[in-house]
Amino acid sequence: MSYLLPLMLKEEFRLHSSYSSRRMFLAFPVIVALFSFAIAMTSQRLLEATPLPDAILFLHLSAFLYGLGVGAFGFLGAQYLERRHGHRNYLVAMPSLLPMSFRRTFLGMYVRDAVFYMALVLAPMVAGLAASVPFTGFRFTSIGFLFLAALISFLVGMSLSFFVSTVYMRSRVAFAGLVAGISVAFAAAGVFRVLPVEAILPGLSMHYGLPPFATPGAAALAGGMAGAGLIALCVAGALLLVPEQYEPRSVPVAEDELPGVDARLGIVRGYRVLLAKELVDLRRSGTIPKMFFSFVTPLLFLSFTAWFVRNGLRAPVGFNSVFYGAMVGFFGVLLYNWLNNVDAMDYYATLPVDVPRVIRTKLLAFLALTTGISTAFVVGVSALNGDLRLLWLALPVMFVTSVYMVVMTAYLTGLRTNSFLFDPGVLARFSVLAILPDLGLTILSFTVDRTPVFTISGIALVLTAMAAATALLYRGIDAKWARHDFAE
Amino acid sequence: MRTSASREHDGPAGPPRSGSSASITSPIPSNNGAEIVRRVKAVEAHGLVKQYGSVTALAGVDLDVEAGDFFGLFGPNGAGKTTLLRILTGQLAPTAGRSSVLGIDPAREPLKVKAAIGIVPEVESPPSYLTASEYLYFVGRVRDVPRLQEAIDRWIAFFDLDEARGTICRDLSKGTRQKLMLAAAFLHGPSLLFLDEPFINLDPIYQRKLKDYLQQYRDAGGTVFMCSHLLEIAEKLCDRVAVIDGGRVIAKGSVAEVKRDERDLEAAFLRLVGERR
Predict the structure, then answer these.
(1) Position B102 in a domain
(2) Of residues A305 and A135, which shows the higher confidence score?
(3) How confident is the model over A147-173, as pLDDT tens digits?
(4) Contact B183, B155 (CB under 8 A)
(5) What was the pLDDT predicted at B7?
(6) Averaged pLDDT of chain A
(7) Calpha distance A126→A136 (Å, rounded)
(8) Which of A7, A36, A78, B234 yields a CA-CA distance of 20 to 30 A from B35?
């Protein structure tokens, strides 16, 4: 491990630097620190609206979710291993050639990402808070405790994700059972209030036992120990489950399925066979369930947050169908990212097909896959909230936002969404283009009952602007990506 | 002069007519247009430079390949062979210089070039989740190949890919994937083939079969541009060759001209590259 970890860290750094440049990549933590500094400077006003314990709860939930996203090595490792014949090879694939243990390599990946993402996000965030001390009067000890507690929540998320993804490598049924169990635990805490949230987030429990909430004592220690124990347990479990020899799961296929799918897609003319291939790929690679979960999970989290704000905090915020419509559109970005991660695309380089055409095919696949789910979610949430009266407005908001978000993401990141969003320049443009219209729609959605004419006119204006921007960005895809190649 | 992919399967690059036997009885019909094709340059490069940051992969490459030639490009590892091939096939833009492939500028019209030629890349990488026959169907549909099923069946038979028909490419052996990439490059009957290490991963039976096919393809008027480290095979196949080292062409001409007094191409290669070390 002593030789492997530094090499893996170098590999990760070089990989991320290659997406933009070394300087741009190193700017990422600086931006995080500046952002955190800005939040700290406005914290007095923020804390008037959201009490500190609730703000801390959101911090830990975010750290936990971030860890969940980072730690799925059972999925990611397999993806790296199966791409070993492409242009890029990774150290994680080396045990197939060298006398190295897969378990040790996976542990290396875990430690690498723990260190890497701590340095990339958590440490700069804390540095930003620390820099605000002369202006805000925060105590360094409180900031230090915040770092430790948030780190535990992040590592719990990462370890849990690591464990669950290695269970998936062994058994899909056990995986489904485990996911269901975790969901029940969170529902018990968040929805039914049978459990306190800190019972399943030991980092939060530890934080509530530390300044400024309490004097450090047994409660904080118990939280910290529980967190460390849970992390160790999940990592040990995951390492036990990592197979010593990696063998890709064979995919049973219906022979010559592609021509049939191609024949049924006459409506998309010039994109027929490309879209047909995309849909066959998605199904056979098992990406559709992953996409479904990665889309539905944040939507459920959002619903829970809205429910919590309304019923738990009793804050008079009107989360209506229009708000959900805007949010569903926003999360569409996650699905576009999945579409670019199914397989390496080198073979396109030998064919008379360019990058813009493949990007457009992905956009068509996105529409084919998400329109139904998004509509069902907005209709379902509206029905559950007894808010069907605004559905006529929520559905166009959802549709225009979805298309705008995905076209904007495609324009900015092409076929490498995951990579380019680590480029601070791209990320900054993405943030401005995503947050401004979404913020506008969210704020307008809150006033729909008080000033309906003003609100509906405002929403119509925002939607028109987004539709116009979508058309411009869609046309711009050609100029921006025509000269790019397919190699990863 | 033909500047686009041949739509007819009986052109100079047409697929074999016969079945899957190891010996090809008459894979390529005679071509009356061969004389016309031979008059033009299939490939031209003038002062091609490719810079990757501070690394110079190509430092001003000049070469030309006549239509109907079997041209071999050789060089040590990292000499710039694959970079040159990728530029000529429209996969990569040069930093400076110009080139022409079948009269088309690949930097300006990469899709037109790719439509006109067949490419076998260095790494065999068909899409993971399509079966072998689905991949050929996909390539044929993208290239708008007429009588596609017939063409797929012929190439599947030629490379004995019948057992791989229903297996997704991810689960195929390297050799089978290489055969599939070759079949995909030949499927539309191009008049010019760019082959980067085409013999790699093939067993001796298929190396022989491919050699025979390429010779008959050339005899029928097709042009081949091949990068390879297998000098023995190349010496038997190539009419003209070039040796590239450090991003520059250090020798070019007929096989005899490049060999000079050496007993074979390998000895000539070692001398040429060795002199520069």
Answers:
(1) yes
(2) A135
(3) 999 999 999 999 998 898 888 888 889
(4) yes
(5) 37
(6) 84
(7) 14
(8) B234
Cβ contacts (< 8 Å) between B114 and chain A: which residues? 350-353
Instruction: Give the number of A-B residue pairs with CB atoms closer than 8 Å.
Output: 104
Q: Which stretches in chain B have pLDDT values below 50?
A: 1-13, 15-38
Number of domains in chain B: 1
B223 DSSP β-pair partners: B192
Residue in B86, B92, B125 closest to A347 by CB: B125
Burial class for B166, CB neighbours closer than 10 Å (0-12, 13-18, 19+):
middle
Give the distance from residue B79's alpha carbon to the nearest chain A alpha carbon, in angstroms.
18
Which among A248, A259, A354 has the least Cβ separation from residue B170? A248
Residue A74 banded pLDDT, cuts 50, 70, 90? low
- What is residue A251's predicted lDDT score, i.e. its pLDDT? 66
Rounded to the nearest angstrom, the minimum Cα separation between A133 and chain B is: 42
CB of A456 closer than 8 Å to CB of A448: yes
Q: Where does chain B have alpha helices with state H?
A: 34-38, 81-88, 110-116, 132-142, 148-158, 174-186, 204-219, 231-237, 255-259, 265-275
Using alpha carbons, select from B66, B73, B70, B50 the residue that is nearest to residue B245.
B73
What is the token pair recorded at A217? 């004592």
Closest-CA distance of chain B to residue A120, Å:
26
Q: In this complex, which of B128, B134, B139 lies closest to A351 when CB atoms are compared?
A: B139
Helix (H, G, I), strand (E, B) or coil at A45: helix
Residue A290: predicted pLDDT: 76
Pairing of strands B240-245, B248-254: antiparallel
Whether B257 is covered by a domain: the verdict is: yes
The amino acid that residue B192 corresponds to is L
- Phi and psi of A149, rounded to 5°? -65, -45
pTM score above 0.80 = no
In a domain, B229, yes or no: yes
Which of B125, B136, B172, B192 to substitute to test the interface with A, most A CBs within 10 Å? B125
Query: Phi then psi for B118, rounded to 5 degrees?
Result: -115, 135
Q: Does any CB of chain A come closer than 8 Å to the CB of residue B171?
A: yes
Chain B interface includes A484 (CB < 8 A): no
Cα–Cα nearest to A478, from A358, A348, A349, A344: A358
The dihedral formed by the CA atoms of A221, A226, A229 and A233, expressed in degrees to the nearest 10:
-170
pLDDT tens, position by position, A331-389: 877 788 888 888 888 889 999 999 999 999 999 999 988 888 889 888 988 887 788 88
Which tokens hold the place of A214? Answer: 């309490």
Residue B123's alpha-carbon distances to A415, A487, B144, B241, in angstroms, are 20, 11, 25, 23
How is the beta sheet containing B41-52 ordered, strand by strand? B55-66, B41-52, B96-101
Give the residue from B170, B167, B136 showing the smallest Cα distance to B154.
Answer: B136
Looking at residue B113, its pLDDT comes to 95
B249 found inside a domain: yes
Location of structure tokens 């008059």? B39
**Cis-peptide into A212, omega within 30 deg:** yes
The CATH number that applies at residue B262 is 3.40.50.300
Which pair of structure tokens corresponds to residue A369? 């896959």
Average pLDDT over residues A400-414: 94
Under a CB-based contact definition with an 8 Å cutoff, are residues A132 and A37 in contact? yes
A488 touches B at CB < 8 Å: no
Whole-angstrom distance, CA of residue A54 vs CA of residue A61: 10
φ/ψ bin of B260: left (φ > 0), alpha (ψ from -120 to 50), beta (otherwise): left
What's the number of CA atoms in the CB half-sphere (13 Å) around residue A68?
14
> CB atoms < 10 A from the CB of A231, how many?
24
- The beta-strand segments (E) located in A15-64 are none
